[in-house]
Specification:
Layout: E1 4-8, E2 15-18, E3 24-28, E4 35-40, H1 41-52, H2 65-77
Antiparallel strand pairs: 1-2, 1-4, 3-4
Helix pairs in contact: 1-2
Bound molecules: zinc ion (ZN).
Protein name: Small CPxCG-related zinc finger protein
Amino acid sequence: MPSTTYRCSSCLDHTLTREYNVSHFSIRCPNCGEFARFVHAGVLEQYEEFEASPPEELDWERLDRMEKFVVAEKLVRQGNTLEDFEVEVHDEE
Ligand SMILES: [Zn+2]
């Protein structure tokens, strides 16, 4: 049975393994005690990679945290490429 690793988005330390493949799920972290979002480890890795070196194709810095996760999730789990993203710039402020 293939399994997927998820990492606590609060302490970034604790990992859990599940047999299903989703972008994230929320559960109380046995390590830090927070009711935390456990994020697909591959997605989180992609997210952190972009945080360290933002892709040229995207206006990464303008995305909020959730949007960044969505982009990372689509790349990792749904097989999208950066070219698939029309960068939607929200000029609300
Ligand atoms: Zn935790």
